[in-house]
Amino acid sequence: MSKVSQHFNEIAINYDAYKSPVNLYYAVLKKAVRQQITHTDIRVLDIGCGTGNILDFLRPKSGVGVDISSSMIKIAKRKFASIPTLKFYVHDIEQKSVRGSFDYILFNDVIEHVINKAATIKNIAASMGKNTVLVLSMANPIWEPVLMLLERLHLKMPEGPHERILESQLISILGKYRLRIISKQIYFPHIRWPFLKDIGLIYVYQIKKFTP
C-alpha cells in the first residue's frame, strides 16, 4: 500500500465532514466544476473521486468514480447504492488507464498526490477520446504556506503526501501526450488587476487532445 492510499484510507471516515457545505474551498470547487459542465446527458469519469460527492452533484447520464483509496470507494458505494447510473472502483491511475468512453474526465486536486505525474497524464490521455474534455483543477502553488497553516490549525483536510507543480510544468507534461489547455479559469479570489492576476487559489483547466 502506498503512502498516499494509506493516508486517504485513514481520513476516509472524516472525508465528508471535511468537504461539508461550510468548506469554502470545496464549495468554490464544486461551483467551478459546474461551470465547466453545465448539462447532464453526459458520461463522466471522476479520477480521485473520494466518496463520490462531485460525481453525484453533476448527476450525469452515467458516472464512474475511481480512487486509490479502498476506504473511500467503500463509502461511495454505500452512499450511492440506490443510484444505478453511478459506479465506483478502486483504481490507481498512475499504474494504468481506465477503460470506457467518456465525455468528461475530472481530475480535481489530485495531480499533487501522484508521484509519477507524467505516467499519470499518459494514462489519462489513453482514457480520452478525440472529443473528451479533461477538467483538471489544482491549487496555485504560491498559496502552499497558507494551506499548510490552515491544516496545522485543523481548518482544512490533511493533505498527506503531495508535491504541487507549476502551470509551466503541467503544460510541459500535457504536451508530451498531445494534450493542450483550451481554457483556464481562476477562482477564490479572482482578481483582475494585471499585476495580481495570478493570485487566485484554484486553477481549473479544460484540456483536450490535439493532432500535431
Automatic annotation (TrEMBL):
One of its GO terms (molecular function) is methyltransferase activity. One of its GO terms (biological process) is methylation. It comes from the Bacteria. Keywords: Methyltransferase, Transferase. It holds the Pfam family Methyltransf_23. InterPro entries: SAM-dependent_MTases_sf. This is Methyltransferase type 12. It comes from Candidatus Gottesmanbacteria bacterium GW2011_GWB1_43_11.
